[in-house]
Amino acid sequence: MKVILHDLGEKYGGILAAGCDLALPADGKYAPCQGCFGCWTKHPAECFMKDKLQKVCRVIGHADELVIVTENLYGGYSAPVKNVLDRSIGTSTPFSTYRGKQMHHTLRYGKHDLWKVIVYGDITEEEKESFRYLAERNALNDGYERSEVYFLEDLSRLEEVI
Prior knowledge:
By secondary structure, the chain is of the alpha/beta class. The chain has a single domain (2-161), classed as 3-Layer(aba) Sandwich (Rossmann fold), CATH 3.40.50. The chain has helices spanning 13-18, 56-61, 79-87, 125-141, 158-161, and strands at residues 2-6, 22-25, 65-71, 92-99, 102-107, 112-120, 144-152.
């Protein structure tokens, strides 16, 4: 299953929906993670908050390919996208294991194929390096075999890289 997490709004909905099984808008119409870890322990992979991200752990956990479309924010994800990623911590468990000779949380849904990040907006070379490193580390931590990062000055090429 291919999931696209994005902060683009409705204008690009058709392009995104055509390129995936599920488009998940990071529109800010949800609460931020409270850090209670209930999605790890009390009710696995389900947030106690009853909003549209209540089951986001399961959606992202079943994604073989996760595509994140985000505006550059100083070499990191936009706030709405980061919020959704924070709420998806339940894709792993509180237990630890070794992956890539490093300790990481045990995956609740197993391995995945591709963590792809598409970054748009003004971006410096240093911010590009930060994004490459961030995507690589996120992919390893969340059990993805590989990561890719694309930088777009504007969204005219979005359909090509989705």
